[in-house]
Design goal:
5-stranded mixed sheet; D-Maltodextrin-Binding Protein, domain 2; 3-stranded parallel sheet; 13 strands; binds glutamic acid
Length: 289
């Protein structure tokens, strides 16, 4: 832990000496942009490559994965995954149109064409697969619990939250998973909205994926702690139009290539890896419908 911290500090120091302007979890791996890639006519890849632009939905308030930075564009691991996909379409980062997706509007934004893809701490699951499709996973998270620093209520896991006021986000798997534990659930639109109620004692815990909570704890040093006792599996996928199989297969190919050529690891290390250990990339799941 101590070693990780000092590495983190030196990485940030080096970045600022180099004038890279990196902040914790907000780096940029800059994948090389493919020159004039060719795709079969009529595919989503051909359409996006011809347009020279892509609209990607992501979170804007989740440090390490998707947080709107000083440039006005979001930064984080999800953002870097979006840049890798765009780069293979021949689309540079400055031609990506970033749209904020909160948990509950991700499927509607894909279905109504507001976005081309969603990369937003988005768990692959069967009910979502009824209306959209998923490439990935490109990361495996797990639901966890955030409490005040020092854990004054002595919470060890979700069982200790029965009958207690707990904050989570509507339209998320976190909300559904925690409901099974009989908590008094208070929901809002984004996880950052849960922090003030936790500070004020209006709720005793916030629950969602461990990596989202780790980012919020890191952003508010000394105020909160994550239990680090995950109780679900949350494989993160890239949301795309329902049954667009050619696009899904192609994104899965891009992910596998990014595992092999080091760009997935570089994306992690420039962002979430400043706070979290580098995991092994998960095998993509080419599920059949
Ligand atoms: N990964 C979970 C989900 O997709 C929780 C995080 C979020 O809401 O983005 O619902």
């Amino acid at each position: 832990m101590r070693l990780k911290k000092s590495l983190t500090i030196s990485a940030i120091a080096v970045a600022s000496i180099l004038g890279l302007g990196a902040c914790a979890g907000g780096g940029d791996a800059n994948p090389p942009v493919a020159e004039k890639p060719s795709f079969e006519a009529g595919t989503t890849m051909a359409k996006l490559a011809d347009a020279g632009a892509i609209t990607i939905g992501t979170k804007f308030d989740q440090p390490l994965f998707g947080l709107k930075g000083p440039s006005g564009d979001p930064e984080g691991f999800d953002v870097e995954i979006g840049k890798i996909i765009a780069s293979k379409l021949g689309i540079a980062a400055d031609k990506i149109n970033w749209v904020e997706t909160v948990s509950k509007n991700r499927e509607p934004f894909i279905e109504n064409g507001t976005v081309d893809i969603v990369v937003a701490t988005y768990t692959i699951n069967d009910s979502r697969k009824e209306v959209i499709s998923f490439a990935g996973p490109y990361y495996n998270a797990g639901q966890d619990i955030l409490v005040l620093a020092g854990n004054p209520e002595g919470i060890k896991g979700p069982e200790d939250l029965k009958g207690k006021d707990v904050c989570s986000v509507s339209g998320s798997t976190s909300e559904k998973n925690i409901a099974a534990y009989g908590v008094n659930l208070i929901t809002t639109d984004t996880y950052s909205n849960c922090l003030e109620p936790l500070r004020q004692g209006k709720v005793i815990a916030v629950t969602t994926d461990n990596v989202i909570l780790a980012g919020l704890a890191d952003q508010n040093a000394g105020e909160f702690e994550v239990l680090s006792n995950p109780f679900t599996e949350e494989p993160y996928g890239i949301g795309l139009g329902h049954d667009d199989d050619a696009f899904r297969d192609w994104i899965n190919d891009v992910l596998e290539a990014s595992y092999a050529d080091g760009s997935w690891k570089a994306a992690w290390e420039a962002t979430a890896g400043k706070v979290l250990k580098t995991p092994e990339p998960p095998a993509v799941n080419r599920y059949s419908n």
